[in-house]
Amino acid sequence: MIAYSFGQEGVDRYIIVYKKAHPPSEDELTVLRRGEEWNEATAKELAEKRERERLEAAELSSMSDTKEDFVPNTNYREKYQHLIGLEAAKDAARVTQTNKQYGFVPSENKKDHRSIEQTLADIQSKKKRRKLNDEADVSGQNPSTSS
Q1: Is residue 35 within 8 Å of 42, Cβ to Cβ?
Q2: 99-138 confidence digits (pLDDT tens)
Q3: Is the pTM of this model over 0.85?
Q4: Cα 38 to Cα 31: distance, rounded to the nearest angstrom
Q5: Where is this region: Disordered (predicted)?
């Protein structure tokens, strides 16, 4: 069972109970909430109104499809030329060259020629050496050997 209450509180409040198999339509609920009576005439009137609105919406959408092409007021390239520059993208996309020398040291000396695997192995061996050195320092500074 579905129950809907209509009217104003304390004035003319009433409740209508419907079976779940036959719930009221949205139009019927709208009419009853306005305080009007639901009958076949109001049902036809609302159906005609809905049909007119649907046709108007379809007409407006068809009119917007035939609208002329949109022309912006400003050119975005001019607006953002400080970011993208004046050159074309193909001209601007060129290979970057590193400096040949940083101070007195050639840039070739600064490049790491090791492979990733070799670099990771070096890092692990450095960690092992550091750990062994720390353990040796702790055992060498142990205060249990007193004279």
Answers
A1: no
A2: 777 778 887 877 888 899 999 999 999 999 999 999 988 8
A3: no
A4: 6
A5: 100-147
